[in-house]
């Protein structure tokens, strides 16, 4: 797809240029953050050391720190930020509510319950099953939300109210699992629940990269349907859309994106809420332009949170989820007051 296809006829090129400029700026910001991730920390690495280590020409220490610790962590931040942002855009389109997010529909709590069950109740299972467990938990939570919110048809308000209730219920189940688990396993799960990419491994990067290769293109191919869904049920039906079918399909897509991210990083909150809003402020409500801006924004948020988490209180590390919550909570209050 060419740039001219992405900005079809009838759309003013100055707006298209604006989006391209914004995406270029966000890409530059992400590259700066990625560079900072690779060079900063308790072990300061020069650009030359990073380059040599990446090419396998550095000493053992720098190679281990760059290739085994920092590079997979930085890449994981990129994928997680983009995945959570895209999931947030889709959820807000499904619910036609700018305050919605994957957590609003109970997806985060369901995926977390699936992953915590593997970590605490079945610790002998291979960790490669963690993404599958998280996805299963997210699907169950989304199914419960849809079932509770269904009264002959689904509405945005009922989905959100049902999602809040389902999320609280699944969070209570997580507490039950943690209470009866072994202390060492519970401690490990607590770190994971706080939302952290500490200890990222290449297997985690491979898992989310494979998922992203399938799910991200599907998200970008669905922009027209998302625009139609935002117009309301009456207009959507009039334009030939099957509202319930599309809502289920997009709900599964949002679950897959959020659950895969949660499986490798834990539930990092507010990224799926903030990124779509920032993209909407810049590019308006057209999903053709919102999606790339939201993805770049989510990536920058997670990278920045992880960078400050690693470097602010050395040698203590603060999980990414704590920083995103510290910024996201005031952002949510601002949105509530504004609207």
Q: Which terms would index this structure?
A:
339 residues, mainly alpha, 15 helices, disordered N terminus
Descriptive notes:
By secondary structure, this protein is an all-alpha fold. Helices cover about 75% and strands about 0% of the residues. It is built from 15 helices and no strands. It has helices at about 5, 15-40, 45-55, 60-95, 105-120, 130-150, 155-180, 185-195, 200-220, 225-230, 235-240, 245-265, 270-285, 285-310, 320-339. Helix 2 (about 15-40) packs parallel to helix 14 (about 285-310) and helix 6 (about 130-150) packs across helix 7 (about 155-180). The longest helix has about 35 residues, at about 60-95. The two termini are about 35 Å apart. About 45% of the residues are buried. The model is unreliable at about 1-15 (pLDDT under 50).
**Separation, N- and C-terminal Cα atoms:** 37 Å
- Considering DSSP H and I runs of 4 or more, what fraction of the residues is helical? over 70%
The major pleated sheet works out as: none
Q: pLDDT under 50 segments (min length 5)?
A: 1-14
SSE blueprint:
Blueprint: H1 3-6, H2 13-39, H3 47-54, H4 60-95, H5 107-121, H6 130-148, H7 156-179, H8 183-193, H9 202-220, H10 223-229, H11 233-238, H12 243-265, H13 271-283, H14 287-311, H15 320-338
Short description:
By secondary structure, the protein is mainly α.
